[in-house]
Sequence to fold (230 residues):
Amino acid sequence: NAGVMQNPRHLVRRRGQEARLRCSPMKGHSHVYWYRQLPEEGLKFMVYLQKENIIDESGMPKERFSAEFPKEGPSILRIQQVVRGDSAAYFCASSPWPGTASREGYTFGSGTRLTVV
Amino acid sequence: DQQVKQNSPSLSVQEGRISILNCDYTNSMFDYFLWYKKYPAEGPTFLISISSIKDKNEDGRFTVFLNKSAKHLSLHIVPSQPGDSAVYFCAASAEDSWGKFQFGAGTQVVVTP
Fold:
């Protein structure tokens, strides 16, 4: 049973380019969460999605960032026109349902390390 | 607005001794508290949790204590082992937050021989 799969593991983008980060949840998990970890900081919630629905995007920057979790395929976090401040580790997590996550925690992927040059 | 705080960025402990990690929070609506462990270049791994209706939860070498009146929790690791060297994050969620967590900044634990 594969865990949460994130790819790519490392992504380098020049300022102004687009970054696409992919996350495949664990089998049977239909709830996906994205977090960002800036250097020397803890994880910050970005967005919570179910299949074809954004449930909570209160942590997403208002511009340039978007997320989706289509009926088929992985969840995608898209960052348009990247800037140096977007350099961070982006982690995806999944759970079978939110109540489980509160008691038993998520299963996190290994993250995508985005570097903007 | 940092609702979960870990004020010790690092902790060094001798192998076999007790590691005590501390965490403070400000939001009285939090009802679950979790600890995660993270190795470099890996995602966080769930370690142990505690409900706000309890004051202690134990799992093997790991015990979490919750003091609601002080809005403080701690993680005890006894005895500490070299494999415990990692970053430990405290996290909290509120009942209506749909599994969304607030994380502390983490404490780097180094277990020395």
The two ends of chain A are 36 Å apart (CA to CA). The mean pLDDT of chain A is 92. DSSP finds one helix and eleven strands in chain A.
